[in-house]
Every structure is written in C-alpha cells, then in structure tokens.
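Bumping my old thread because nobody answered last time. Still need a sequence for this structure:
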C-alpha cells in the first residue's frame, strides 16, 4: 500500500471490489495473532485497511518501538500479465533470509516464485519503508491475476503462509 501523502487514503492496487489495503491487512492481522499467541510483541504501522498512515512514516514507527524486524506486505499488479510472489530486501546480509521467506510463502500459497530482489531492482530506486532495517517487502502476488488473487484471499493458504513466516521469526 502506498499512501504517499498523510491524510490521503490510497487503497493500493485494485481489482474490482478487491483492494490491496484490505487484503494485506487481513494478512497482517493473521500473522499478528499467530505471533502474539507465541509471546511476541507485534507493532502494526497501520491499524486498519483505511488507515492513512503514509508509507514514508512507517519505518519511523518501527524505529520508535525498537522493532527487531519489519515485514511490509503488498499486492502487485501488471494488467493480468504476470503472476507470483517476490520479496525485496536491502543489503547482501539479508538475501538468504529473504529467499527462505519468499520460498515458504510461495509453498504455502502455491504461487510462482519470482525470487528475491534488492530494493534497487524494484520499480523505485529506493523504498521508503526500507529505511528501517532489516525490512522485507513482500509482494504476495498479483491482485489482477486470477490465480494469485484466489490464493491471497484463501484463508487456509493465508494461515499456512503466516504460520511459515512465524516459524522464521
């Protein structure tokens, strides 16, 4: 979700009635419940799908709470011409963790593994959320690809992926 300007709600990528903001909030809340049940403290940088918190403020929120790791969930879009899951990271020390994280998510969702990429390989040269380190920006799938969308919306697959992520934290 982008929300580039404070006070301006941005639903992110949209496919019909499905908005990136709502999809990723379901994921965040699922993972949060699993981690809290395991005794972890979890900070969300947005509290609900319509939260207007700009992406540029999110790394600062994680820093303010002395977080150990930041996961940023997103949905990709490419006019239905692409599919799969990919994870962005910053710095070579985080490449192997990003690859394992991405692989576990792909296995749980049944999506194509698009691999891991450095932040500079994204459509932007720098990703504001990644000023917090370590941060992993996870593009769960393509909201405009029917298979990816169904996988991202499937509560059983979401639970399996979140359990796999929790095992790594």
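Sorry it took so long. Here it is:
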């Amino acid at each position: 979700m982008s929300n580039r300007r404070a006070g301006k709600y941005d639903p992110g990528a949209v496919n019909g009635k499905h908005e990136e903001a709502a999809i990723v909030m379901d994921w965040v809340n699922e993972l949060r419940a699993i981690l809290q049940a395991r005794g972890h403290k979890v900070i969300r940088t947005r509290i609900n799908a319509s939260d207007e918190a700009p992406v540029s403020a999110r790394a600062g929120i994680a820093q303010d709470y002395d977080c150990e790791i930041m996961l940023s969930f997103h949905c990709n879009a490419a006019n239905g011409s692409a599919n799969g899951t990919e994870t962005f990271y910053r710095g070579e020390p985080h490449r192997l963790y990003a690859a394992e994280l991405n692989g576990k998510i792909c296995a749980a969702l049944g999506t194509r593994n698009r691999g891991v990429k450095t932040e500079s390989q994204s459509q932007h040269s720098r990703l504001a959320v990644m000023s917090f380190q370590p941060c992993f920006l996870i593009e769960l799938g393509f909201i405009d690809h029917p298979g990816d969308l169904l996988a991202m919306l499937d509560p059983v697959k979401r639970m399996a992926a979140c359990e796999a992520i929790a095992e790594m934290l």
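The chain has a mean pLDDT of 91. Let me know if any region looks off to you.
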